[in-house]
Write a structure and sequence with these properties.
The chain has 5 helices and 13 strands. By secondary structure, it is an alpha+beta fold. A 6-stranded mixed β-sheet has the order 6-7-8-9-11-10. Strands 1, 2, 3, 4 and 5 form a 5-stranded antiparallel β-sheet that branches. It has a two-stranded antiparallel sheet with strand order 12-13.
């Protein structure tokens, strides 16, 4: 219901639960209820507890979109046997006369694995750099690291190859915006929407960034997700020139 109220053009989901044994398919249910196209990539199959019993399931990646995907692919990422396989999604579609490319990722949650997170993110960025996209490029998802940590900070500081911008901040997002449910406010933010600029170092304009899916349906009720959502409005036909010192 809250997603329907937002009326998004694109939704990037991580840890999308699917179990044939339990008859549960979260991403397909969302797509059908919202009338959106579904691009799903299965990952991390194992036994999980669902509705009070243990069932075989997958925790995959899902991109929902109003417009059909022109191209879509799943990208295997470096992994650790303690964590299971990790995949990223890359899809492209025409939006306002330009080609939008979006990567959806979920980096490892292992506390001692910053180097693995760097390699996973580097794999996605390398793929996007070689794809030759001519329009806006977004990299979003659950990075399992904070903005000032050793994974994202150096990436934003180094503009020698590509330029990376925090789209949520560029769109006017301000103040504490922790994304983990159940943590003492404001809590850490580990979910991001990043803009990646190639070929002339131009980013699209972003506006109206805010937190979403952060209220229960009714007082004391269930939250839509175990992470709050970050939202922003992308203006793909209004690029901004990026300058660096």
């Amino acid at each position: 219901r809250q997603l329907a109220e937002l009326a998004p053009d694109i939704v990037a989901c991580q840890e999308a639960f699917v179990s044939e044994e339990a008859g549960a398919d979260t991403p397909r249910l969302l797509a059908e209820e919202l009338g959106m196209n579904l691009f799903f990539s299965p990952a991390r199959e194992k036994a999980r507890v669902f509705d009070g019993r243990e069932v075989r399931s997958i925790s995959g990646m899902a991109l929902l979109s109003r417009r059909p995907w022109q191209t879509r692919e799943s990208i295997p990422l470096p992994s650790d046997r303690r964590d299971g396989e990790r995949v990223a999604q890359v899809g492209a579609m025409e939006l306002a006369g330009v080609l939008l490319t979006i990567a959806n990722l979920h980096l490892t949650h292992l506390a001692d694995a910053d180097e693995l997170r760097r390699r996973q993110l580097a794999t996605v960025l390398h793929h996007l750099s070689g794809a030759g996209g001519v329009g806006p490029i977004l990299v979003c998802g659950d990075f399992n690291t904070t903005f000032d940590g050793p994974v994202i900070g150096p990436l934003l500081a180094d503009s020698s190859c590509v330029n990376i911008r925090d789209a949520w901040a560029a769109g006017g997002g301000t103040g504490p915006h922790g994304t983990l449910v159940g943590r003492a406010a404001p809590g850490p933010c580990i979910d991001y929407i990043l803009s990646m600029a190639l070929d002339g170092r131009r980013h699209p304009r972003f506006t109206s960034s805010r937190l979403a899916l952060n209220m229960p349906a009714e007082p004391g009720g269930i939250l839509p997700s175990d992470h709050f959502a970050l939202t922003t409005i992308l203006h793909p036909d209004q690029p901004e020139l990026v300058t660096t010192s």
